[in-house]
């Protein structure tokens, strides 16, 4: 009997994207995390989730907007610190 992969929830999608951002931004401190994401091809922004699964288009769009907002907020925060 094969198990069907459950579609990830909104929280899971946002969490995946936040962890990807974290892996990229802290690669010099958390090298194992960065290496794992890189080896699995998860650093590619076109990758929507860590496994291939059917993803609700609205959940995916919202998770993508959250990802962009987080990246923008982090870059603004860093630019203020460097000023």
How is the secondary structure organized here?
Blueprint: H1 10-25, H2 31-39, H3 57-81
Task: Describe the structure in your own words.
By secondary structure, the protein is mainly α. It has one domain. The relative contact order is 0.18. The protein has three helices and no strands. It has helices at 10-25, 31-39, 57-81. The longest helix has 25 residues, at 57-81.
In short, what is this structure?
By secondary structure, the protein is an all-alpha fold. It is built from 3 helices and no strands. Helices cover 60% and strands 0% of the residues.
Given helix and strand content, the structural type is mainly alpha
Mean pLDDT: 89
Q: Please give the radius of gyration in angstroms.
A: 15 Å
Number of individual domains: 1
Q: Percent helix among the residues?
A: 55-70%
**Principal-axis shape:** flat
Major sheet summary line: none
In angstroms, what separates the terminal alpha carbons?
Answer: 59 Å
Q: List the helices and strands in order.
A: HHH
Helix segment count? 3
Poorly predicted runs are none
Number of strands: 0
């Amino acid at each position: 009997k094969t198990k069907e992969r459950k579609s990830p929830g909104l929280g899971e999608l946002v969490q995946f994207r936040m962890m990807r951002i974290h892996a990229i931004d802290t690669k010099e401190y958390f090298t194992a995390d960065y290496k794992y994401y890189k080896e699995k091809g998860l650093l590619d922004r076109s990758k929507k989730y860590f496994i291939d699964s059917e993803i609700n288009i609205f959940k995916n769009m919202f998770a993508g907007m959250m990802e962009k907002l987080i990246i923008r907020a982090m870059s603004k925060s860093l630019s203020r610190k460097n000023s």
